[in-house]
Design goal:
This protein is 81% helix and 0% strand. By secondary structure, it is mostly helical. It has one domain. The relative contact order is 0.14.
Length: 225
């Protein structure tokens, strides 16, 4: 319990820092809403793939806004010049990673909920009984994005062009997550259950499990370099 309590202390510190500044949160939400709005004007509701296209818009907005959040993972320590101090703390570095991961997950998930609500209004989509499945899908996608984002934010923390480097690293690895989420949400928004989605939800579960395990194993080596 002490391990998770200490991890939550780090996550809470990061969340309070972002809430006080609010600039990152505002940027995340506005970018996500803008992506949904812009794609709405270019959508053709008459094509057969319209449902999948709408889901793609939802997850593209989620992806772009989420990358802003994870890119700030080590920003407060870097700006204050105490990143080395954090890494020198006499605690397991997996605890530092977990704390950062929890903070990023909460930010990404909360922003995803706002984007989802805006999406349902703009595209006149009724979640119906599928709302629970959509939220579960959002949780899985948020875990995946936060997991990868936190790790690669640590990789890019000491690099001058860290934002560009983070994007180059993370976007290709997030392609399976976005595809699986888009295919699953298409069926859920069409009134079908998770069972109808076949292996797509399970792909998200496996994706999260693999990258969580790998991230915890390599984080110590990443920050050591």
């Amino acid at each position: 319990m002490a391990f998770f309590s200490q991890a939550w202390t780090i996550a809470r510190k990061d969340l309070l820092t972002e809430l006080r500044g609010a600039s990152t949160i505002i940027s995340m939400v506005l970018l996500g809403l803008l992506v949904v709005l812009v794609f709405n004007f270019g959508a053709d509701p008459g094509v057969e793939s319209a449902a999948l296209a709408r889901s793609g818009v939802l997850w593209a907005a989620f992806l772009f806004s989420g990358v802003i959040a994870v890119g700030r993972s080590f920003a407060s320590e870097r700006e204050a010049g105490c990143l080395d101090g954090l890494l020198l703390c006499p605690v397991d570095r997996a605890l530092i990673y977990l704390g950062k991961l929890i903070g990023n997950f909460i930010l990404v998930f909360a922003t995803g909920v706002v984007i989802l609500l805006f999406f349902t209004v703009i595209y006149n989509v009724s979640l119906g009984l599928g709302w629970l499945g959509i939220l579960l899908l959002l949780v899985l996608a948020s875990v995946g994005l936060a997991t990868l984002g936190t790790l690669f934010a640590a990789v890019a923390a000491g690099v001058r062009a860290r934002d560009a480097l983070l994007t180059v690293f993370i976007f290709p690895l997030l392609v399976p997550l976005v595809i699986a989420a888009a295919h699953t949400s298409t069926l859920l928004l069409d009134g079908k259950g998770l069972g109808a989605a076949g292996f797509w939800p399970w792909l998200l579960v496996v994706y999260d499990a693999i990258f969580l395990a790998v991230s915890f194993m390599v984080f110590d080596f990443v920050v050591e370099d």
